[in-house]
Write a structure and sequence with these properties.
The complex is a heterodimer of chains A (115) and B (111). Chain A has 115 residues and is an all-beta fold. Chain A is built from no helices and 13 strands. In chain A, a hairpin with a 2-residue loop joins strand 5 and strand 6. Chain A starts with a strand and ends with a strand. The chains are: A mainly beta (115), B mainly beta (111).
């Protein structure tokens, strides 16, 4: 089954404790992206990647890191989480064709609470 | 902001009625997409309309695009309680690598 998986689905942590949220897709997509969703603000892009070893900042990259060592995986790293990073996080992937944005497939979300 | 803006923010209708949601945007686009999100879950793609298309259908969904007015509408006909969700438009803007999502319309269909 074609899908995007994220782990963990729920996470409670404390300020400053490094964490990683994993994202994996099995559709051989070039493009992968991380979003956060907060009430009243819609989806805001954190980082994206257009292929292996190619990553770039989205709208709200501060406090986050990503890597793209393999095509299927795109982990999101919070080196020193703070309470303002409490949010619902989504990973998404899509094909990338001729610079045009195609249909994105979303993971189920990771709900993060930073105390 | 590069985001699209949906209108209305919230919509409540009776089952069987039609629901119309609108999306406005500010820049030139390659395509415009509509997504659905059930509460707290991942977004699911509904339909993509390209900049050279004016109307597209998928089952009970009808999407229109007016690039001169920089707007799109999503019509759900004969709504069902199961259509209750948030609906987002996302624009694939010319020269940009990403989709830009609006803040969504919350649709409630009352049985």
């Amino acid at each position: 089954e074609a899908q995007v998986t994220q782990n963990p689905r729920y996470l409670i942590t404390v300020t400053g404790k490094k964490l990683t949220v994993t994202c994996s897709q099995n559709m051989n997509h070039e493009y992968m992206s991380w979003y956060r969703q907060d009430p009243g603000l819609g989806l805001r892009q954190i980082y994206y990647s257009m292929n292996v070893e190619v990553t770039d900042k989205g709208d709200v990259p501060e406090g986050y890191k990503v890597s793209r060592k393999e095509k299927r995986n795109f982990p999101l790293i919070l080196e020193s989480p703070s309470p303002n990073q409490t949010s619902l996080y989504f990973c998404a992937s899509s094909f990338w064709s001729s610079g045009k944005q195609e249909t994105q497939y979303f993971g189920p979300g990771t709900r993060l609470l930073v105390l | 902001s590069q985001q699209g803006e949906e209108d209305p923010q919230a919509l409540s209708i009776q089952e069987g009625e039609n629901a119309t949601m609108n999306c406005s945007y500010k820049t030139s686009i390659n395509n415009l997409q509509w997504y659905r999100q059930n509460s707290g879950r991942g977004l699911v793609h509904l339909i993509l309309i390209r900049s050279n298309e004016r109307e597209k259908h998928s089952g009970r969904l009808r999407v229109t695009l007016d690039t001169s007015k920089k707007s799109s509408s999503l019509l759900i006909t004969a709504s069902r309680a199961a259509d209750t969700a948030s609906y987002f438009c996302a624009t694939g803007q010319t020269g940009a690598n990403n989709l830009f999502f609006g803040t969504g319309t919350r649709l409630t269909v009352i049985p």
